[in-house]
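REQUEST FORM: STRUCTURE PREDICTION
Request ID: SP-0412
Submitted by: Lab K.M.
Chain count: 1
Length (residues): 112
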Amino acid sequence: MTNAVASPKPPRSRLLLIALIVGTIVAIVAMVPALAVATMSVMVVAAGTNPVIYTFLVFAFGMPVVVVLGPVLAWIAFGLRRERTSWVLLISPAVWACLTVGLLAVAPGGSS
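STATUS: Completed
RESULT:
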């Protein structure tokens, strides 16, 4: 009978753990403005029909979803020892917010 020796798992990154804790706290705080933008973005539709408006609506309604799912999925990836995936998921709300601000900056009449 052979005994299978389990290979030792690599230690989890302490920096990633600290980033996950801070990122989760920031995501909880960021829910307030994300929900406010999603709620107020419905008024943008009154401005007329424009593909940029509908793209902004997708980004605005997607922000609360990304803010919640990013850190939750990052914690799951951390538990599965997928550090690179965890980092990507942790910064996904910031990337989504930068894309939204960038969209507003390049939109016609977006920057005065």
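NOTES: The mean pLDDT is 84.
Reviewed by: T.R.
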